[in-house]
Design brief:
The chain is mostly helical. The protein has a single domain, classed as Up-down Bundle (Growth Hormone, Chain: A), CATH 1.20.1250. About 80% of the residues lie in helices and about 0% in strands. The chain is built from 19 helices and no strands. Helix 2 packs antiparallel against helix 7, helix 4 packs across helix 7 and helix 9 runs antiparallel to helix 13.
Length: about 400
Amino acid sequence: MTNGARTRTPVPPRAWVMLAIGVAAQAAGTVFVSTPAFLIPLLHSEHGLSLSQAGTLAAAPTFGMVLTLVAWGAAADRFGEKWVISSGLALTAIAAVAAMLTNDYALLGVAFLLGGMAAASTNAASGRVVIGWFPKDRRGLAMGIRQMSQPLGVTIASLTVPHLASSAGISSAVAFSLALNGILALVAVAALVNPPRTNAPAATAATALTPTNPYRADSFLWRIHLSSALLVFPQFTLSTFGLVWLINEQHLSATLAGLLIGLSQFIGALGRIVVGVWSDRVGSRVGPLRLVSASAAVVMLAMAFADSAPWGIPALALVIATTVSVADNGLAFTSVAEASGPQWQGKALGAQNTGQFIAASAVGPVVGALIGAVGYPIAFAVVAAFPAVAIPLVPEHDQDVSI
């Protein structure tokens, strides 16, 4: 008798190595992008910035990513993943040096912006690594592992940045991301190999059938992009303001709060793998994506109600909410890559992340101002509306023109 495990397409060992490098590379970039968010308590309490001002500074790297995601994706389509990832990480390290050398908040924001522009290189390019090296029936798992890179990077930042910033200052916290990005740039140069199809003739039978522009064929990609942008709001609300909520509202120490954020991000990373495997088993990305959207709305409402409960309940609510809020990324990313085809994967994945990071850039100043005006419980309840609106936008059926 044949079962799912026996019929899975074999994956070459090199594919797993390339996936590991892609995960590590994007995690390193994420540490840089996440660092300003974990500086918010210090900037707010000791440097006199308002939550809205500190949130705006924290959004600078994300806004920088918005400016270059599609361009990096197009470069990956044309030149392959290896040099896009390695050069982007090297430029991120240079931006970290610039951030360490300034005491001016405006210049610090510019350095974070430029670093975000460089760190965007790993997003679309590492997604292409997964689609290129892994067969369709293993991509949910592989992309789930790849999508661990973002919560893994946030976890690393949460466990290091608050302590380094409070004990040795902002420059020391940024220096950590400098080291990570520099090391991973060298690793990518030495060991990353483009997928076999990267250097294959462009006009294969599969690509010949791919529409010149998949965005003109129907609304599938547009709907995935829009629903994913809406789902960013709960994710980045928790990653940006979760730490300061635990410290200021739940009265946890900075160390304990950082550990809790790190734990929630780690569990969320594992959740992405589980959801990816689930999508492989059911043979659908959009079905699980719709259920995750509904769950995200529910958990954000739970956060609103947990605000005034004893601290153990808010802590548990935060872990659950974080796990659910990050579960959609791999599903949407895989769906976009499969629906766009090999000639458009980099650009489509860049567009996917652009929409997400436009929304993420708004979270810092908008939700920060909302929290300042109405408090955390109402702000969490308002954020719950975004994934609720995403539910009907998720397409009814999957599309796949990938090779």
